[in-house]
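This section describes the prediction task in plain terms. A model, or a person checking by hand, is given the sequence of a single protein chain and must write out its three-dimensional structure as a string of tokens. No templates, partner chains or ligands are provided. The sample shown here is typical of the held-out split.
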Amino acid sequence: LVPTAAALVMIALTVSLGRWQADRADEKAGRQALLDARGAEAPLWLTGSVRSAEDVLFRRVRVKGHFAPAGQVFVDNRIHGGRAGFHVMTPLALEGAGPLVLVNRGWIARTASYPAAPDVPVPAGTHVVEGLATVPPARYVELSGDTVAGNVWQNLSSARYAGSVGREVLPVVVLATPPGPGL
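The expected answer:
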């Protein structure tokens, strides 16, 4: 009786896991279809508030404003070409006293001064940035409450960033195309 019951539980578990995998595949296929469809559309100018990140997710967007160097943060433990480094996130203040939008300007390798972030200059003046509208990962593991050390962050959240700077921040991150100089 025990081996039969154990076998039935295992069968039910594997069927359930198979259905979960199929659902995840459907979800990823839907995301890819959305990415393909929105990638074919003309770039959208972001000039003010965005009601929801889903409205512009995976759209090519353009933003115009000036970078705010004091708000630049480095998202740690990002791997590129097998090397550890940082994603460089620089806020762009939209023209007309609009909200901030975070721009992922690119990746930079760790230096000997790690855990301190490397020196990455922020361009001055007004800029037009074009890129893909993305959102930071919604789920991540934080083993400690100490995940922000100055301008080095373990994970990025638009809400957490807005709270740290005390300004409205759009719920999307612009993945700059091409990356900034030196990144």
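For orientation: The chain has a mean pLDDT of 89.
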